[in-house]
Queue: 2 jobs
Job 1
Amino acid sequence: MNERLNLGNGFPPSAKGLPAFSEDVIRPGGGKALPTSTAFLFACVGLLLLLGGITELWVSNAKVALSLTLSSAVGLVMVIPGCAAGMAANRTGNPPDDIVTLIALLVVGCGLLAMADQWAQRSYNPLSYLLTAFVFGAFTLTRLRPAHLFAVAALLLGADVFLAYIRHGAGQAIQQTLLSDGLCALIGVPANLRLWRLDQQQRLSTLEALADPLTGLANRRALERIAEIGLRYAQRERRAVTVAVLDLDKFKSVNDLHGHDVGDSVLQLVADGLRQFAQRPLDCIARLGGDEFVIFWFDLDIEQAGRLGRELVTSVGTRPLRLPVGTAIQPKISLGACSGVPHGATRLDELLRLADRALYQVKHESGNRALVRSIPGSIGRVVIGHNFRISRPYEPRQGEVAKAPRSDDARPR
Ligand SMILES: Nc1nc2c(ncn2[C@@H]2O[C@H](COP(=O)(O)OP(=O)(O)OP(=O)(O)O)[C@@H](O)[C@H]2O)c(=O)[nH]1
């Protein structure tokens, strides 16, 4: 896994009182998760039924074989919801709501299996069915790691054999282990491992789609999704948010003097340094392109934003970056931000524009400073900059158009 692929704390975000947060919110385009593994699971269960029926026919008789196939079909009914719930849990990152339904299904399923076995005059051992349910369902439900999965499966298997040995002797125990549990384990465990791998791959690709490839920070898409949630929550709870736009000063000259690769390293090192400033749940730090970064701070009012902004600018500007090529570079950064309690119509784009204007002012005044404006209409004090200067909230002058402040600003609006 890409080591840089770390979208930081709070990714995916979680905050007390937030509505159940689904990865669908951050998965680009939404979409169904794990379609391949669902098909694979059904194929495995079908194969299990077939093999179970054939082997019982081989060692017993048609009536018993039919019983096993029927009881396996009932097993299917109780296992599939378990798997579906497990996949849903994996997809959303939340425990399934229908866990009670699942347990009820397991109980009813076991009862039906017992009846089917009674009908075929066979001894009934619920553990073998529970093992089937476990190997197909429990792994996806509990997100067990493969080592744990094998350990629990081995324990269940051991208990099953032991019970069969006590009740029916060695012959029956071996037969049961080889045929019933063995088949379950042979098919169920790899099926779950495959689900696990697919799940990992999907998580990785979801992360990749939301990360900036150079720095591993969030990209614009991830920022938009997190900010959307943060703004909604802040508005409901009347909490302040701060959106800061950061831009390295004279970064072009780093590229020109040392080359593009060194420029890339500088961006990575600066990104690493910035991470510590967005550590709380729902904070998000993103690179939008070039040398431009954005931080969304949840629950940070204008005074705190001013202090943090100053700290950030000082931190970046006073720590020489040691580059892999042996050079040390001392970048400087400028920060423009807006802060306040959002209202119903507040959108990230609007906050980015406000922050951009503050940044423009900082750059205009020779840079390497932080300037925070208040969101118009929001409660609180107004502007805190590098030297805690207080001024009025930004009001567009008559005739001023809401456009990107620099002609070379490539950020799409
Ligand atoms: N190394 C590197 N450079 C990039 C990347 N993307 C954009 N750039 C360069 O970053 C520079 C951005 O410069 P600007 O922000 O426009 O200007 P600046 O020199 O930083 O000047 P001010 O922002 O006005 O202080 C340009 O030279 C781009 O070519 C990248 O991924 N890697």
Job 2
Amino acid sequence: MERIPVIEIFGPTIQGEGMVIGQKTMFVRTAGCDYRCRWCDSSFTWDGSAKDEIKQMTAEDIWQQLKQLGGDRFNHVTISGGNPALLKSLHALISLLKQHRMRIGLETQGSVWQDWFYDIDDFTISPKPPSSNMETNFAMLDTIMDRLASHRGQVSIKVVVFNDEDFAYAKHVHQRYPTVPFYVQVGNDDIHEGDDVTLRLKLLQKLEWLVEQVVQSNEMNDVRVLPQLHTLLWGNRRGV
Ligand SMILES: C[S@@+](CC[C@H](N)C(=O)[O-])C[C@H]1O[C@@H](n2cnc3c(N)ncnc32)[C@H](O)[C@@H]1O
Ligand SMILES: Nc1nc2[nH]cc(C(=O)O)c2c(=O)[nH]1
Ligand code: SF4
Ligand SMILES: [Mg+2]
């Protein structure tokens, strides 16, 4: 039986980001990433700090844990990471979730393709801006966007923005794929802040700044600006 490296399973909660923000969902977070974003809010998935929590699970193990946590109070499961697209073995989980009539969301940065992408209902691709210190492979991103063009599910692009340079990058990505629903998301620079009131204030100020950038730009007439709703509600906690 193929195994999937899982670092946490949680929910029911709400999708705090992007196209289906507010959707009640469970989360399955896989371990391992091909990127090392400077500001990654889930670096425990790849930096070794939570390596003892990684479980090699079968699709059936994961389903059992989802049911144990969520009972019959969910019909949507979001797969995130790390980069879940590194895992060919996820196809087994995707088909099992389909059998159980779940809708499936995926969060990935668009650096790797998998054939099971075709079975995702809510697909979020989040290419990384300069502040991450990562470099986008646009040839790969073009391939992925091209293959998903005739996808039956919803596809969107979400770029996290921390500064002017990131905003310029976001414009560039939006122009490259102009027909794909496009979201800019507030970057959280304070991933170690423990005081939720302080964090909220900072994030709302950044949201105001980002809204202003979009309002003033004639190249961003058809984009949506969002905060991370879960961070506003529950701060930097894991598993929410
Ligand atoms: C932790 S990543 C996991 C999925 C995949 N590796 C990716 O980056 O798309 C999930 C989402 O969180 C975003 N994210 C990570 N750190 C963040 C931060 N400090 N502030 C805002 N968004 C962040 C990522 O850009 C991505 O859209
Ligand atoms: N509530 C909630 N929404 C999220 N949307 C994307 C998340 C992620 O870490 O991928 C995330 C998360 O960790 N929690
Ligand atoms: S690609 Fe996603 S999980 Fe990987 S380091 Fe960047 S934000 Fe974190
Ligand atoms: Mg998160």
